[in-house]
Amino acid sequence: MTARVGSRVDGVEESIYKPYNGRIIWMREETPDITTFRVALEEHEVVDSFTSFKPGNFVLASVIGYGEAPFAISSPPSQRGSIEISVKRLGVLTQVLHELCVEDRIGLRGPYGNDFLRGEPKGKNLLFVAGGIGMAPIRSLIHHVLDDRKSYGEITILYGAKSIADIPYKKEFKRWDRMDGVDVVLTVDPGGETPDWDGRIGYVPNILTELNTSPKNCLAFVCGPQIVIKLSAQTLSNWGFKSRDIISTLENRMKCGIGKCGRCNVGHIYVCKHGPVFTYEEIMKMPNSDY
Ligand SMILES: Cc1cc2nc3c(=O)[nH]c(=O)nc-3n(C[C@H](O)[C@H](O)[C@H](O)COP(=O)(O)OP(=O)(O)OC[C@H]3O[C@@H](n4cnc5c(N)ncnc54)[C@H](O)[C@@H]3O)c2cc1C
Ligand code: FES
Fold first, then answer.
1. Is 85 helix (H, G, I), strand (E, B) or coil?
2. What Rg value do the Cα atoms of the chain yield, rounded?
3. Is the peptide bond before 111 cis (omega within 30 degrees of 0)?
């Protein structure tokens, strides 16, 4: 993690909440309500530290007058000099972000939080399970793993969306599926298919039960809505996965992003600071855990 600390500018302590200036240098409309933005920082002196993130880290993106919100970094660390975030249109800020164009400016703070590499995935088989916008943090990790393909075992990627039109990163899924030892399984909710759809039809946790992945030397990364995490983790546990080998990321509401305001806490755990990446073992131990 490369948390920004206050520094002195002309004798004045710089606020830790002050965002860097980001410039959108590329964007892609993934689905009707998800757009990916590639953002470069204008403060050249911080580019290296800002882009030395790890998969699973998040940033706080802002537009003046419309607020600030956390987004997972969806690009891999190997993409030096810029980061990507994939934003699902939901409310005030995300709507405004969707109205921006290349060359427009946004504020960026971070990178914050812990990361997926805490699971020590090297040398292991990896199972990725994601639903909806939960694919954004997983995409960063998949690219990171495939950048060093020989260091990992078999890779299975299960992703589900409401409909075919709602599947982001379509070309990447195709490319990954053509790689040796990588199996991509795409599914859409019942009714979200077209007659020529050659993927699966069904909800992610149901399709997962058909994969029957061996827990031997395998780590599972599960991201998406709470119900997807809960049901998928139950299936994985039934197959013999240890709860510490099931890794997820939580999306609790956040404000400061750096463990100061208490907006994101679950008991004594600050999701922004101690997470957002947790093992299922840790999630189950959280107060009033509904997973
Ligand atoms: C660590 C982390 C990583 C995230 N990564 C991504 C990402 O990669 N891509 C992405 O699109 N989104 C991501 N989110 C969620 C994103 O932060 C929210 O969608 C965003 O804050 C909505 O802002 P808004 O101003 O558009 O919505 P608002 O106008 O604030 O709210 C619109 C509606 O969404 C609800 N809402 C807002 N935030 C959340 C939330 N965190 N959980 C559930 N409901 C919420 C509100 O209650 C309201 O009903 C992440 C959240 C966290 C905590
Ligand atoms: S968002 Fe402020 S403490 Fe986590």
1. strand
2. 19
3. yes
Instruction: Give the pLDDT confidence of 167-199 residue by residue, as tens digits.
Output: 999 999 999 999 999 999 999 999 999 999 999
- SS3 assignment, position 212: coil
User: Which of 245, 227, 161 lies closest to 200, judged by CA?
Assistant: 161
Q: Which atom of ligand 2 is nearest to the CA of 270?
A: 4
271 CA → ligand 2 middle, Å: 7
Architecture of the domain delimited by 116-249: 3-Layer(aba) Sandwich (3.40)
Please provide residue 264's backbone torsions phi and psi, each rounded to the nearest 5 degrees. -105, 5
pLDDT tens figures, 212-248: 899 999 999 999 999 999 999 999 999 999 999 999 9
Indicate if ligand 1 lies below 6 Å from the C-beta of 115. Answer: no
Ligand 2 atom with least separation from CA of 273: 4
Average pLDDT over residues 124-130: 98
- The residues near 101 (Cβ < 8 Å, ≥ 6 apart) are 24, 27
Domain residue spans of the chain: 8-112, 116-249
* Buried b / exposed e along 139-158 (16+ C-beta atoms within 10 A): bbbbbbbbeeeeebebbbbb
Residue 112 CA: which ligand is closest?
1
* 70 Cβ inside 6 Å of ligand 1: yes
**Token duo for residue 83:** 């980061």
Is 130's C-beta closer than 6 angstroms to any atom of ligand 1? no
Closest CA to 89 of 111, 110, 108, 66: 66
- Which amino acid, residue 241? F
Q: Which two tokens stand for residue 255?
A: 């404000």
Ligand 1 pocket check for 250: Cβ under 6 Å: no
Identify the CATH homologous superfamily for domain 8-112: Translation factors (2.40.30.10)
